[in-house]
Specification:
Elements: H1 2-10, E1 23-24, E2 35-38, E3 46-48, E4 51-54, H2 61-68, H3 72-78, E5 92-95, E6 98-100, E7 108-112, E8 117-121, E9 131-136, E10 139-140, E11 149-158, H4 166-174, E12 194-198, E13 206-208, E14 219-221, E15 225-226, H5 229-238, E16 244-248, E17 252-257, E18 260-265, H6 285-293, E19 302-303, H7 305-314, E20 320-321, E21 323-324
Length: 342
Amino acid sequence: MNETIRAVMGWRVQTIGALAAGLWLSLASGTASALMFPLPPEDTNVIGEVQVIAADEEDTLLSLGRRYGIGYEEMRRANPEVDVWLPGEGTQVTIPSRFILPEAAREGIVINLAEMRLYYYPGAESDNTGMVETYPISVGRMDWSTPLGKSQITEKTENPYWFPPESILTERREQGRPLPEAVPPGPDNPLGRHKLRLDIPGGAYLIHGTNEPRGIGMRVTHGCIRMFPEDVESLYERLPSGSSVEIVNQPVKAGWLDDQLLVEVHPILPPEAENAFDNVEPPSIMEAVLAVARVLEQGDVRVDHERLAGAVNSADGLPGAVSRSNTHQIALDEAKLPTLLY
């Protein structure tokens, strides 16, 4: 194991080109809250930048998140000392709008469950070809996890009925909150006004809107992908049936910004967790080491293992540099290597 880490930490690579500047799209609440950026070259995968804004008196972290295209957990982890409901006028609030693209084909929709975020790569027929859009989402709870793998959109429905599956009907009966077998379109329909069906076996997995937008950015669904109403409407109008969808689970992503190696780490639910509201924990350091190893050949740096361990331990979702330039020769401390494994 030590030989693997030593090889990863000492690997030298070539410098990459500069990253294109990011572009904000539709920041106002009530319009699509996507962030849209120029798609970087294949050997570059960091987009956007972190911003710090001053809250107004009426702001909450949830309202600011919706305005800037950021989900609940993303906003909370980026602002651990800020009150979710009463930030206070003039309070400095971090908008975590820098992202490392998931390790997946840059086409159609890519969903990373670990960060509760959807990426959309418009095709050649789109006005936004050469760009990448990203949206906050809600994903499945521990007991209703969202399946991984490649899929596609097979059906699009506006103002859908909701036919709760038997499993949900049973759950709600046991809770003393029975549901009808069919919920018509309207404000009580949890699918919102738009749904996109995926061809995952069983046919019950959807990308859809919501009548409870406060839950966007949480693990609260029964396996579907839930979006802000304005966000799913934007995709609904542009995505044809047959569009590809790839669902991945990557709590650690690594990528390049200029000559710096960055990692982005998200917390995970431990295997023993019984529901989505149990305490989360950092992913393993080996998962981070392997993520770094997969991109090291694209740059000319050495890895600072203390920074990497710190990024894993904090798991705040903010991309941070874990590299040292070659002007600083790094001698890996054998005594410290074992700490990376725990």
